[in-house]
Amino acid sequence: QVQLVESGGGLVQAGGSLRLSCATSGRTFSSYAMGWFRQAPGKDREFVAAISRSGGSTYYADSVKGRFTISRDNAKNTVYLRMNSLKPEDTAVYYCAADRVPPLAVVALSRADEYNYWGQGTQVTVSS
């Protein structure tokens, strides 16, 4: 089965930056659309960012647009989330997810039920 392992989380002060990585097993990584979601204490899991299988299309939640950047390196089977200008409200467990049969439009990747595989998450804590 496909395995996803997130890394790069940690504690950072407001205004700082972090880069999350998601390493994915298998030689079919390039056929998967990829997404990042997050879940804060007491809140539902929410969409953060998504990227098409080629990396040519991206989509972001309004709350992170302009601050976060999703990217992928298909040669390394890895997707990244660069987070700049972090705010305390960004504090959450961040999850990487893979969609084995991507939809035609990246906007559809905002739905958690679109994804087939999930990582176990990495904690991001932003202090003020």
Brief summary of the model shown:
With 128 residues, the protein is mostly beta strands.
Describe this structure in words.
The chain is mainly β and 128 residues long. The protein has strands at 4-7, 10-13, 18-24, 33-39, 46-51, 58-60, 68-73, 78-83, 92-99, 117-118, 122-127. Strands 2, 4, 5, 6, 9, 10 and 11 form a seven-stranded mixed β-sheet that branches. The chain starts with a strand and ends with a strand. The mean pLDDT is 96.
Q: In percent, how helical is the residue content?
A: under 10%
What kind of sheet is the major sheet? 7 strands, mixed
Radius of gyration: 13 Å
Low-confidence stretches: none
Distinct helical segment count: 0
Helix- and strand-based class? mainly beta
Number of strands: 11
Mean of all residue-level pLDDT scores: 96
The topology string of helices and strands comes to EEEEEEEEEEE
Report the sheet-strand fraction: over 45%
CA(first)-CA(last) distance: 40 Å
Shape by Cα distribution = globular
